[in-house]
Batch of 4 targets.
Target 1
Amino acid sequence: MDFVELEAIEGLRWSWNSWPPSKSESAALVIPLSIMCTPLMQQAELPILPYDPVTCLRCGAVLNPYARVEYLSRIWFCSFCHHRNSFPHSYSNIGDTNLPAELFPTYSAVEYSKTAHGIPNSGSNSLNWANGLSSSSSLSSMVSSSAASVSDGDSRGVRPAFVFVVDACTPGDELGVLKNELLLVVEKLPETALVGLVTFDSMVRVHDLGFSECLRAVVFHGERELSSLQVAGFLLCLP
Ligand SMILES: [Zn+2]
């Protein structure tokens, strides 16, 4: 299939149009593998698999068509950490001609109707957030439809969180348009949503949106390496 056509279907743009199958091939790439993803992209026929995903024991990544599979020994290699995983018992009949749907080459984007106990079901609600999108590509329209289906928080009190990361080197006129779009987006978010704003040029600024008396931001030098623990310390959000 043509890569441009595939991008229109999946919303993914690759630096390479394939996934390196092994650690050595991954390390040999001159240009690193990167994929630009369009979140919440409308997909007319997103397949729903009525069972739980098979995940990598080491990193938790989900089995997908890019994973290297050895059918005879019934193992698969994680695309992300290259860990060697065994298939669960329910996949014992797996083979070249008997593939689970998540390994179909055209099923690189699927939705699972995951169940609490791993019991297959015929759930049909898992696509609500994706199906409700309008066809417009503007940020605010994407969020207006998706926010409608974002609940104000679940039973554990976990609220939806949105962090906006803005490249401050963007030309002034584009930055103005982006700012207006972001304001519209924020307006349409659920009342209880947590919102963060990070801007970056040669410095990284984490803006304190809850401090309304004056503009306040924690500034990090763009060339200084900090551990996530140090960053958490500076942001006063250590556990
Ligand atoms: Zn893994």
Target 2
Amino acid sequence: MSTNEELIGRADVNDLEAILSVANTDVDEAIHVVKNNADAIFTWDYEKGRRPALNRLYEKAKTAQWNGATDLPWDTEVDQEAVVVANATANMGGMAGGIDPSVIADSPFAKWTEKEWIQVGVESQNWTLSQFMHGEQGALICTAKIVETVPWIDAKYYAATQVMDEARHVEVFAKYLDDKLSGHYPINAHLRLLLDDIVNDSRWDMTYLGMQIMVEGLALAAFGFMHQLTTEPLLKQLLRYVMSDEARHVAFGVISLKEYYAELTDAELKERQEFAFEAAVRMRDRFLQQEVWDRMGLNVKEVLPLVMHSPQRQLFQTMLFSKIVPNCKKLGLLDANGGWLRQKFTELGVIGFEDNPDTGEEYAMFQLAEGELAS
Ligand SMILES: [Fe+2]
Ligand SMILES: [Fe+2]
């Protein structure tokens, strides 16, 4: 059995010092090269629909395309500071995001006025949307890789539609950042390590597990949370459109891996369980937004424990796993090998989601209704 140390580089998953020691030191790099070790697989079996669920998904994807340049109301005026205030007032119990006032009195936040709280809200938006954009580029690259590596024609067809979806997602997040917000952040180091691991792995199913199940499962939950909470109408609609695609992407992962994992040995499943755990921890670490606190001139180690204990933050951290846990359960990953991953998700405090609906069929619910598309 691998230890936490071997898997994530630290014995205690909550070891803040170790988490913060992973930082992006190449913030000025313009390109980032990752070795892609996989074989490109041709198949000579062209029978379309041999896997009916994938075929249905492919047919659905062909008619669900939208245009990021023309289907969204880009002429919407966005006053970023006003949005920060409106969001905080509507959802966060005020500008301090629910941090206990008695804790603030004794902390570096004590001197903060409304100005600093608004500034951190602005930085946090810039950071969040930047990481979404970088994650979408990860999805673009991973899905192009799946087109090459998956041995089934129905999956190659479907993955090809997802490549187009992801290009559109990168495009709309980049445009939103450029036109409506006030600055980009480089990729978070925890996210980059995870994307590197996924691209680097030679086994085709690991791309699916890392991207479609873990990264996109988390994205679907995070987009849903933000879609529900934001008071900014353009972002709300943008997220609505992206989620209609993401739900299909996660379904693609669940449907494909359900078939493949049924044939794996316990030892092979163990490697997948460990990979899922490692990905879960990396994704949790990135949401600490360490770069934002740093940019605000604060001692990150000092303020993070305060921020982490706010009830809103804790709700957000666990909610991120609301899709991942039931999907891992459906794939048999929670209970294989004596429930190894169940135990790990229990330690992370997210096992409570195991009986939520899985995303294998849920995509129909996210579909854009007739008339919801502008063109
Ligand atoms: Fe996407
Ligand atoms: Fe996606």
Target 3
Amino acid sequence: MRKKLRIFFTLAFAAVALAVVACATHGAVRAPAPVASRTVTPLIPGTYIEEVSGFKPGFRVEVTLSANRIENITVLSHNDTVIIAQAVIDSIIPTIISQQSTAVDVVSGATLTSFGIIQAVQNAIAAAGGNPADYWAPVRSSPQHLSRTAIIDPHGTPRGPERTPRRWDESHDIVIVGGGHAGLMAAYAAANNGAQVLLIEKMSFLGGNSLITGGQMAFHDSRIAAEAYRRLNLPPDTAEQHIRDTVAGGDFQSFLPLVENFVHAGPFILNMLLDNGLTVREHITMPGGHYGFRVYGTTSGQGDDVIEVQKRMIERAGIDVRLNTKMVRIYREGNQSGRAVGIAELPPFEWTQS
Ligand SMILES: Cc1cc2nc3c(=O)[nH]c(=O)nc-3n(C[C@H](O)[C@H](O)[C@H](O)COP(=O)(O)OP(=O)(O)OC[C@H]3O[C@@H](n4cnc5c(N)ncnc54)[C@H](O)[C@@H]3O)c2cc1C
């Protein structure tokens, strides 16, 4: 029988500790007064369009205000990475409106985009003759957030229980931790080979660092290579040269079987991405450190094009994805030295309404 990888929710473990710390922690977190009971400078009702900077300049936000409320916030256009900005839009905007506060938690990994939206709302309040400070009320976190505090060790690292739990909350064939290029591809490969897969991602969006790469990918061959080399009048590349360059680029520290696997599997991976809708630029280049024409670039010039394709692939493969869920411990056989048998995960927390 196939062994399953299991999950223990640290939240369940933290429940007892929570009772101990809840009083102290809860006392320190102030709930915002409902806006109706706050003294606010009256606003000139209307729709205000503000242009601010997110990660990049050009974030245009429409803010609708009534006399004493933030009624609606719509992002009209922006130049930030689409997936990252969308994660901010989906989480921060509903929270600002429900809490009637701009003192909301920023989205980790998207701090500048978050600040951009917050700034736009504050600018609109000022433009409407109001005082932005009236809408700066600390929001109250849910008990799940307190449980996070309860399991932080003296070094500040959240952890699950030390010992492998006797009972597990869930059981899966394969659990993939992290939804960047690597995790998404691993999840897809496992599901395609018949495994039931759960993918967890600590951020509120998939993609990780892979979203913001230069979108440059090295493959010694592909199903579009022959035509491109002919059109661009370039000499074809070889797997052997790609392996030599990769080993030299790694200062001869590489594990050769891994490099060989990476190079020989490369064309299969690019072909699969192309078959699933990836588009690449017309040129195949030879950047520094490479001695063959083998680098393909995504149309956007970022990794987000590839992530979009990978997201569609895992969706079609029916993979269960859990966002805002952080792995905090790996349990292993043999006194933590053997193969992984399970993980502890920290489920998401939510801000509560005031
Ligand atoms: C600015 C920049 C440009 C780059 N340009 C290129 C390029 O053009 N070409 C190239 O080949 N390489 C490039 N790289 C390198 C490339 O980004 C990485 O090699 C690649 O993205 C790594 O993919 P990954 O899936 O391993 O990691 P990531 O994409 O970082 O994914 C890891 C994921 O795991 C999640 N995670 C981490 N810990 C946990 C946890 N405990 N629980 C749950 N989830 C967790 C993270 O949130 C993240 O989503 C670039 C890197 C940077 C930073």
Target 4
Amino acid sequence: MRGTVVIIMRSAVALAFMGMFTMIQTGSALAWNGMGHEVVAAIAEKHLTATGRLWVGELLSAEGKTSIVEVARWADRIRDLKVGVQPSHLVRLPLDEREYDPAKQCKNHRCIIGAIDESVAALNDPALPTEAKVAALKYIVHLVGDIHQPLHASEDPGVFKVIFKGKEMTFHDVWDSAFIRSRKMSVHDIADMVDDFERGNAPAGGSTVSWAIESRNLARDVLLRDLGAQRATAMLVLPDDYLERHWPAVRLRLEQAGLRLASLLNGIRMR
Ligand SMILES: [Zn+2]
């Protein structure tokens, strides 16, 4: 255990030392829950090319691992250790018509868009040592999942309280955890179900900026709008069929995250 912590800390420090990440994560424990990240990784793994699979496997073997599913939760774990220098898992895009302005919303690359872009650049850098590349790979696997969670790109991240099935939780928690847990299936079974359903339908492609804008639009036009006038009440009560009603949006975002993660990894030029 102690050895693991030391390795994690050394990775983060190595990244900071090389100036790759200068972002301090200021959010709380906001993210798809661990299982959601594993589902995204499992979908991506199904879409890796032979070349992508080879270099990813080589990097993972440096830590005795064989699958990106095994490292999908790492970025949340290391953030919780509060080792100091961490990439952001969020970007707060305005909910009105203002365009994305990196100088305001991603100053000094301090947002998830900058973190993913810098991790990709790190993997494409032939001079970077293996340890730093492994850390960059683990950040990409995790953060491509987070950027597809609508409330991770919204100026309003939904940290207000709601009541769902008699339990008080934040609206953000509902979107991070409740959908995935409600399936009561294994990571690989959810990944297969989502991929079988959405494959061929889900628009892939785009850039980190367009992925974040998609998430913001979904947060604004569906998640937050759906709450409507209830927002003015003291406590929001979500209807019992809330998860079923919004599962298609979650399924689509998981598939898009998986396809785009695979595409990013397949496009890395490892030497
Ligand atoms: Zn996260």
